[in-house]
Amino acid sequence: MQRTADSTTSLRIAIQKSGRLTDKTIDLLKGIGLRFDDYKRNLLVKCRNFDVELLLIRDDDIPEYVQDGVCDLGFVGANETQEKGADVTVLRGLDYGICRLSLAARKNGDIQSIQDFEGKSIATSYPNLTRNFFGKRDINAEIVTISGAVEIAPRLEVADAICDLVSTGNTLKANGLEELETILESETQLIRTNKELSSGKKQLIEKFLQRMDGHQQAERSRYIMMNAPEEAVPKIKEIIPSLKSPTVMPLADNGMVAVHTVIPIDEFWVVMEKLKAEGASGIVILPIESMIL
Ligand code: ATP
Ligand code: ZN
């Protein structure tokens, strides 16, 4: 892979072709206004309204493609980037594809703690991360690399234990396994090549990040409108954790005002209850498309 990322002018972004990250990544790209033709049937898809093309590949290949500059950016789990030891820059952490890489062994079996792994075999698709973990603890464990269905390895007596990705833990339970230790917490990340890029591409990345940040901020916020007695405005201002001062407009009814502002979604219910207690009524909440601060 000798091609540099700069031999095209479009920003080339690697995403998972088909799997757990695909829909969320496509939704995110659509959410920031990018439009694509049929991405399900093609490997390389041009964006219709932004200078971007998507390369759809296996998630395992994404860190190396970005490292080598075949792609400028990539959306991939931290688990893959760290397993490959890829030389890339993490631009953003994203709140999907959340999982952990954990050690698990038979429930009530002879492996109950980390020390019990001495001399045992561990099936995993993450040999480097697993080896590093035990190396640091001076424990000799045999790593058996397998590429899928890791959770059935102990039952098939392929290995004594496993090191695999877990989200709910249901798959482990269904296979009679018990989670013993997390060796890595993972989330989807936006990674960037460390190869030198043209100023045109750098500008495109800045624009892309600005859109992503605006979209993420908007997803975490709501536009709120309410009516309130004029004398309650100072209290309302104290209650609302606003980005900036709220808009206050007089209403036809004497002594009443309309208050418009933006609030973080996390504080939504608490703020709502407090506002009602101060006499706010007709409270309307709207989603926000994007926010440029
Ligand atoms: P590919 O064919 O692209 O190699 P895959 O089978 O390796 O696909 P998926 O199962 O689609 O990959 O998982 C993709 C990524 O989703 C993982 O690398 C990880 O970052 C994340 N993920 C989140 N939760 C889980 C989970 N419970 N099990 C596996 N992966 C998870
Ligand atoms: Zn994979």
UniProtKB/TrEMBL annotation:
GO terms for biological process: L-histidine biosynthetic process. It is found in: Cytoplasm. Pathway: Amino-acid biosynthesis; L-histidine biosynthesis; L-histidine from 5-phospho-alpha-D-ribose 1-diphosphate: step 1/9. Its EC number is 2.4.2.17. GO terms for molecular function: ATP binding; ATP phosphoribosyltransferase activity; magnesium ion binding. Feedback inhibited by histidine. Its cofactor is Mg(2+). It catalyses: 1-(5-phospho-beta-D-ribosyl)-ATP + diphosphate = 5-phospho-alpha-D-ribose 1-diphosphate + ATP. Keywords: Amino-acid biosynthesis, ATP-binding, Cytoplasm, Glycosyltransferase, Histidine biosynthesis, Magnesium, Metal-binding, Nucleotide-binding, Transferase. Transmembrane segments: none annotated. Residues 58-213 form the ATP phosphoribosyltransferase catalytic domain. Residues 218-289 form the Histidine biosynthesis HisG C-terminal domain. It comes from the Bacteria. It is an enzyme of class 2 (transferase). GO terms for cellular component: cytoplasm. Pfam families: HisG, HisG_C. Catalyzes the condensation of ATP and 5-phosphoribose 1-diphosphate to form N'-(5'-phosphoribosyl)-ATP (PR-ATP). Has a crucial role in the pathway because the rate of histidine biosynthesis seems to be controlled primarily by regulation of HisG enzymatic activity. Belongs to the ATP phosphoribosyltransferase family. Long subfamily. This is ATP phosphoribosyltransferase. It comes from Fodinibius salipaludis. The lineage of its organism: Bacteria, Pseudomonadati, Balneolota, Balneolia, Balneolales.
